[in-house]
Write a structure and sequence with these properties.
Layout: E1 9-11, H1 13-16, H2 21-37, E2 40-44, H3 50-64, H4 68-71, E3 83-85, E4 109-114, H5 141-167, H6 173-178, E5 181-189, E6 206-209, E7 215-220, E8 226-229, E9 235-237, E10 245-249, H7 251-256, E11 266-268, E12 272-273, E13 276-277, E14 281-290, E15 294-295, E16 313-314, H8 315-326, H9 336-346
Parallel strand pairs: 1-2
Antiparallel strand pairs: 2-10, 3-4, 4-5, 5-14, 6-11, 7-10, 7-14, 8-9, 8-11, 12-13, 15-16
Helix pairs in contact: 2-5, 3-5
């Protein structure tokens, strides 16, 4: 009989307020267990000001309230991973090499901002990997979003320090993989005007996928829709707790730990009441790691005599393959392990 599924809650206050070594060790151990068992965690004690969250939510509301024609002015080439993504222009399951029912059927709309090459002047980075942002002409939008972006980045960097302790690597090891990290904030909107979309069997809020990088910091409305896949191949509903952020691991963490930490598959199903899609917003801050960082299983996560699950790859190479699936519609044939899990669950 399968065990009851739940998302653990971890209070990271000792790392935010410089707690004692014993307090930090307790947090690292709790996080390690959650990463091994679920890969999704509710974190509290993060220290994020509620005003920053409210500012983000209002900025999202102001932008997504624009007409579709106005929002489409901010569409950029898929490779840039910036700007506006209209409804049904993506299919996240393609990033796993899994065919959706229809080719590009994810009905969410999104707006992406992220770190640019100019923010790391000494690193001589390419704008191909660290694109400039395109800010919409909405009053105070950039200021409101940037204030939250900085808070989410601080939380992600705090988690990196906890990960170093949990993974038992030397201090600074993961910071060395993230000192010019590809960071992207993706703001998602799942509410569309009535009549703009058919409520058919092919409708998907956001297709099943894993996140690409090291860790994701997720703010979301407490509205049903988000589901995660457990180790038994069963999908479960997940919603953020009061004053908590949902944290989930990405593929880079799974690679570093040879799958001992879980890059958990998740999706968003559309909550529909009386034929109407309910309003749901989310904002995912992706802390992916340096584009040129080479990642593969850490030696102490591969048992003697065993073959590692993954060959070393740069963060850039991995992300390009995933984005070519989700945003350009080219199936990612390298995600063999993830695709097998999705297909097994579908049976």
């Amino acid at each position: 009989m399968a065990s009851t599924f739940f998302v653990p809650t971890v209070d990271i206050t000792p790392y935010v307020t410089n707690g004692t070594a014993a307090e930090r060790a307790s947090v690292a151990e709790a996080l390690d267990q959650a990463c091994r068992q679920v890969g999704f965690i509710q974190i509290v004690g993060h220290g994020v000001d509620s005003a920053a969250v409210a500012g983000l939510a209002s900025a999202m509301d102001d932008f997504f309230a624009l007409s579709l024609d106005d929002k489409k002015k901010y569409v950029l080439p898929p490779s840039k991973n910036r700007g506006y993504s209209p409804p049904k222009s993506e299919s996240l399951s393609y990033s796993l090499g899994v065919d959706p029912v229809t080719r590009m059927n994810d009905f969410f709309e999104a707006f992406n901002v992220g770190t640019s090459a100019a923010e790391y002047p000494e690193a001589n980075l390419s704008t191909d990997d660290y694109a400039e942002n395109l800010w919409p002409e909405v009053a105070d939008y950039e200021a409101r979003v940037s204030a939250y972006f900085d808070e989410a980045a601080r939380v992600a960097q705090t988690l990196i320090r906890i990960f170093e302790d949990a993974l038992k690597v030397e201090p600074g090891y993961l910071e060395g993989l993230t000192d010019h990290s590809i960071d992207v904030l993706r703001m998602n909107n799942y509410a569309l005007p009535e009549g703009d979309i058919e409520l058919g069997a092919e409708l998907t809020g956001m297709g099943e996928h894993t996140d690409f990088g090291i860790v994701t910091v997720l703010w979301a409305d407490q509205v049903e829709g988000l589901q995660v896949l457990d180790s038994d191949g069963v999908w479960h509903d997940v919603s953020p707790a009061d004053d908590a952020f949902l944290i989930n691991l990405g593929d880079v963490s799974a690679r570093l730990t040879n799958d001992q930490w879980s890059s958990t598959l998740h999706r968003v199903k559309p909550p529909i009441v009386n034929g109407t899609i309910k309003r749901r917003r989310s904002a995912a801050f992706f802390h992916d790691g340096n584009a040129d960082a080479v990642v593969g299983p850490l030696p102490h996560f591969v048992a003697e005599g065993d073959e590692p699950h993954y060959d070393p790859v740069t963060v850039k190479e991995h992300i390009v393959a995933k984005l070519s699936g989700s945003r350009a519609g080219k199936k990612n044939v390298s995600a063999v392990r993830e695709a097998a899990r999705v297909n097994a669950a579908a049976q």
